[in-house]
Specification:
Oligomer: single chain
Structural class: mainly alpha
Number of strands: 2
Strand order of the largest sheet: 1-2
Largest sheet: 2 strands, antiparallel
Radius of gyration: 50 Å
Helix content: 55-70%
Shape: extended
Distance between the termini: 129 Å
Low-confidence stretches: 64-72, 83-87, 107-118, 120-127, 435-443, 728-760, 790-794
């Protein structure tokens, strides 16, 4: 018969790599426990078997009568056993003894051994084994053993005497033997108790262990860095320390190993992606150096993969609140380990965007951007922003954008707004524009041999061949990617971004993601196709008119609309008057409280709406905005007041006729209507900027300077001109432009535009950020008074008047007398 085939699969090499020390110890313990339990069971079965043999011997079927005397020996033995078990004759009465003898002389059914199924007179059979005879005996039902009673003192009642009994506890001898064996086994297992360490000794021991582990990690890392190709196997040894089992140093050692491996991979990873070898490549013979390089690459990729799997498992254990059976690490320590693991993943995401498993890291990081923990969420968002900023080609950015878009859609747009705010860091300035077939430039192709032979001479063909060879080599040696590939990736990325934005505008208009969407549309509005402008402006106006938006969201809508109109939207015949009206109406919702931060968006909107579109803005509109902005400057924080006054200064230079607001004489008919929300019809020309007088007495010195500067007509020279630190940038820019300097291909400006450029100085937004009071301190700080220290202290006589001096002297010269206080006298007088 063939041996039974073992169906258990042999563990693979990868499975053996994943088998930790904890699993091996648990398997050993389980094996020992099974052996002990098997030993107990075997002893119990042997004990039962011995008892069964004894019972079979004692219950052998022997007939009561044996007339032929065929079994004298066994009969004598049985009689002896009966005599031993029987009571002594001296303890029995004579009548009972005689009765027993008479019964023994008669053979009847009642006096037979009922345990035997054989007849009384049975013929002699062959010798049978004792156990086989025992098996033929019918089994007796297992009955409960008779309970032994203990008689207690009786109780006397009206009805009579009531006997009292109690059951005697039965002690199972088999159970006692088993318990005794277990105790003996436990005594063998228990070792000598370890001496308990004090707190100081424990800390000293932990410090010593930790120092040894650190030295071991440092030695392995140094060996790997010194010669990565030869010592690549030491990466596995270092990674095995991620399963540190010593509970005293387990958490710290694992964190150190995670960070060490992360830095090692950043240093030894090549600048190209390692692909798996084909079967043909594996079968070919290669040199030793190439074989060594291949082994290094394979080992690096495998260890990098296992390392990422370990980091992923740490994050999953923390997210699922999963505690290992080893109890080496507590649940509280899992959070710290997960934070270090996430930080390492973020570093690898940014540092190795070209290497293997980068898409796997993206899939891990993107869901953590929406994590409940604010620290982990911010860490992942910052890593993604950093990746977007440094990604010149756009390949890594496209992968992240795809995953984020799918995640936002899968969560039904219920994610953190910070996820969509990362889109603002994308480095996208140009995209592919659809061109006509005539405008498409065909790619340059090399001439065929037949074309060369027809058109070129022999010498020309020779030169052409050398030229084409050189051009091919230059293309191969070029490190930078082609512009066509870059534009293609940017176009695909921006399409996914706009699809995400438009989905939220259509399906989740009340979502907290709306401000981030509007801000993103404002940034990339110049890249939107002109075909979508009309529909997009209608959607933005509908959102504003709905009244469901906050002041900040409505300001973002206005900003997005004017960004669209300031780029390719100039060619469209669209009247944005409704957006001007909405901004004019929204200005008074800002104040020095929570809405103060909205001033920055207002300053950006005003720059686009009034300054850059100055040719489409009427004088009445400019006057109304300048008047309302001066009123707004009275009830906002100082940095907002500075920004508002700076934008007013720019508007007064952009629209020179607005200086009539500095005169108190009205121009034309009508009365100024400040409560009217239409800037064109509020008659702002019939008012004056009286707010500047109040701002001139402001406690902030910069606000005072700007107010005085505007009251004087915002001159560029003279005593009321701004100081150089507030207008240096504009002056330098004007000087360079006047001398012919033209950075970044700016258009040549006319002579009339140069003074306007000169007066710009620092932008309003820059001033708002520079003088911010977010740190809860005065900005600029209050100047300390530099009073000179006087040698002599001035006496009171020199600065007190005469009457006060006499009163002080009189009180000082009086002798103090201590009189008893009588409060009752004053109390009685007050009651009267």
């Amino acid at each position: 018969m063939k041996a039974r085939r073992n169906k258990k699969q042999i563990p693979s090499f990868r499975k053996l790599l994943k088998t930790s020390k904890v699993k091996l110890e648990n398997k050993l313990k389980n094996k020992q426990f099974k052996q002990q339990s098997t030993l107990k069971k075997y002893r119990k079965e042997q004990r039962k078997l011995r008892q069964a043999v004894k019972d079979a011997v004692s219950k052998r079927p022997i007939p009561l009568e044996d007339p032929k005397g065929k079994r004298p020996g066994k009969r004598i033995e049985r009689e002896e056993e009966e005599e031993e078990e029987a009571l002594p004759l001296d303890m029995m009465d004579e009548d009972d003894l005689q009765l027993m003898k008479d019964l023994g002389q008669r053979a009847s059914f009642l006096t037979r051994d009922l345990s035997s199924s054989e007849p009384v007179h049975v013929k002699k059979r062959k010798r049978e084994h004792v156990i086989e005879k025992y098996e033929k005996i019918p089994r007796a039902l297992q009955t409960a053993p008779e309970k032994e009673l203990i008689h207690l003192l009786p109780i006397k009642d009206k009805s009579g005497i009531i006997p009292q009994t109690r059951e005697k506890p039965v002690i199972d001898s088999n159970q006692d033997e088993e318990d005794q064996e277990e105790v003996e086994l436990e005594e063998e297992i228990i070792e000598d108790p370890v001496r308990e360490l004090t707190l100081e000794e424990h800390l000293t021991e932990r410090k010593k262990k930790l120092q040894e582990k650190k030295m071991h990690i440092a030695a392995l890392a140094s060996a790997i860095l010194s010669d990565p190709e030869s010592n690549i196997k030491k990466l596995k040894e270092l990674r095995s320390m991620l399963m540190e089992q010593d509970p005293d140093v387990a958490v710290t050692v694992r964190k150190l190993v995670i960070v060490s491996l992360m830095e090692l991979f950043k240093d030894i990873t090549p600048s190209y992606k390692i692909r798996p070898l084909t079967e043909a490549e594996k079968s070919t013979k290669i040199r030793k150096e190439t074989q060594k390089l291949r082994e290094f690459e394979e080992g690096l990729v495998s260890q990098y993969k296992f390392y990422l799997e370990n980091l992923e498992q740490m994050v999953k254990d923390w997210k699922q609140r999963k505690l290992k059976k080893s109890n080496v690490i507590s649940l509280k320590a899992y959070k710290g380990l997960a934070e270090v693991a996430v930080k390492s993943l973020c570093e690898l995401l940014v540092a190795l965007p070209h290497f293997n498993f980068h898409n796997n890291i993206i899939v891990l990081i993107v869901p953590l951007m929406n994590d409940v923990s604010k620290l982990i969420s911010e860490m992942c968002c910052e890593a993604v922003k950093k990746l977007f900023k440094q990604d010149k080609l756009g390949q890594a950015s496209l992968g992240v954008i795809k995953v984020i878009s799918g995640f936002v859609k899968g969560r039904n747009y219920e994610v953190r707004p910070e996820m969509l705010k990362t889109f603002l860091c994308l480095r996208i300035k140009e995209i592919e524009v659809k061109k006509d077939t005539e405008d498409i430039n065909k790619p340059k192709k090399f001439m065929t041999f037949k074309e060369k032979r027809k058109t070129l001479s022999r010498m020309q063909r020779k030169w052409k061949k050398a030229e084409e060879k050189l051009e091919r080599e230059l293309r191969e040696a070029e490190a930078s990617e082609s512009t066509e590939k870059k534009l293609k990736l940017h176009t695909e990325t921006l399409n996914i971004v706009f699809v995400t934005y438009f989905r939220i505008l259509k399906k989740a208009q009340r979502s907290p993601l709306l401000p981030a969407v509007l801000e993103g549309l404002a940034k990339f509005a110049h890249l939107i196709n002109v075909e979508f402008f009309d529909d997009l402006l209608v959607v933005l106006h509908t959102l504003i008119e709905s009244g469901d938006l906050s002041y900040q969201e409505s300001l973002h809508c206005v900003q997005t609309a004017f960004h669209i109109l300031s780029g390719q939207g100039d060619v469209l015949n669209i009247d944005p008057m409704k957006f001007y009206t909405h901004l004019y109406k929204t200005l008074f919702k800002l104040h020095a409280g929570a809405t103060n931060e909205g001033v920055e968006i207002v300053l950006q909107c005003l720059d686009i709406m009034l300054t850059k579109r100055r040719k489409q803005v009427s004088q009445q509109r400019a006057l109304a905005f300048i008047k309302r902005l001066c009123t707004l400057a009275l009830h906002v924080l100082p940095n907002s007041s500075i920004g508002i006054l700076a934008i007013n200064r720019i508007l007064m230079h952009t629209f020179p006729k607005t200086d009539l607001l500095l005169d108190n004489e009205s121009q034309g008919s009508g009365v100024f209507l400040p409560e009217l929300d239409e800037p064109e019809y509020c008659n702002a020309q019939n008012t004056a900027l009286w707010e500047l007088h109040a701002l001139r007495r402001h406690y902030h010195p910069i606000v005072q300077r700007f107010a005085a500067h505007l009251m004087a007509g915002a001159p560029s020279e003279g005593s009321e001109a701004l100081k150089p630190e507030l207008s240096r940038r504009g002056f330098l820019f004007w000087r360079k432009m006047k001398n012919g300097f033209n950075p970044k291909g700016l258009r040549k400006e006319t002579h009339d535009d140069l003074p306007w450029r000169m007066e710009l100085g620092m932008s309003a937004t820059e001033l708002f950020e520079t003088y911010s009071m977010a740190a809860m301190t005065f900005n600029p700080p209050v100047e300390s008074s530099n009073s000179k220290r006087k040698d002599k202290v001035i006496q009171g006589d020199s600065f007190l008047n005469e009457d006060l001096n006499e009163l002080i002297k009189r009180h000082c010269n009086e002798v103090g007398t201590h009189l008893p206080l009588d409060f009752t006298k004053y109390l009685q007088s007050s009651l009267r």
